[in-house]
Amino acid sequence: xxxxxxxxxxxxxxxADATITDDELRVLLEAARWAPSHGNSQPARxxxxxxxxxxxxxxxxxxxxxxxxxxxxxxxxxxxxxITADDRGDLSNVEFGLGLAMENIALQAVDLGLxxxxxxxxxREAAHAAFSMPADVRPLVAMALGRPGRVxxxxxxxxxxxxxxxxxxxxxxxxxxxxxxxxxxx
Length: 186
What we know:
This protein is α+β, with helices and mostly antiparallel strands. The protein has one domain (3-153): NADH Oxidase (3-Layer(aba) Sandwich), CATH 3.40.109. 38% of the residues lie in helices and 18% in strands. It has eight helices and six strands; from the N terminus they run ααβααβββαβαβαα. It has helices at 3-7, 22-33, 54-62, 65-71, 94-111, 124-130, 156-163, 171-174; strands at 44-50, 76-83, 85-86, 89-90, 115-119, 137-146. A four-stranded antiparallel beta sheet has the order 1-2-6-5, sandwiched between helices. It has a two-stranded antiparallel sheet with strand order 3-4. Helix 2 (22-33) crosses helix 5 (94-111). The relative contact order is 0.21.
């Protein structure tokens, strides 16, 4: 397996002093642009703000309280959105396209020595309103991007979570053949 995949994780300890350059951000968003999508519909759209900008602050305001405690230290906040229609009509599987684009950002970030953390914990309606999104746009996920920080700078309740061992379900629990529950990886 490619090391970019095994090194990717979702830390919360961001360096509040670090920045992401415009060139680095462009590379991350180019990686998203090249993600596969259903029928090449390319439904992924992004709202992006560097720390200290009004866009960053507006994104931060949409986050749930638990995410606000650490995400403000990130260098960049982003909201991943989908368009639901184009000149061909309604688009299918738009979530699939955005998911792949977000993963491309996360893997490209690993390659650049950056960290990311995706969040479902944000107010989608508030984000939609804050950025005057058209009716056919749906914000689906937020992401913090930056450079690693100190675990000690996190709220105490998150420090243990940050340091716990990463776990994944074994293939024997997730891959089946013939009958559900029958795994070739027993």
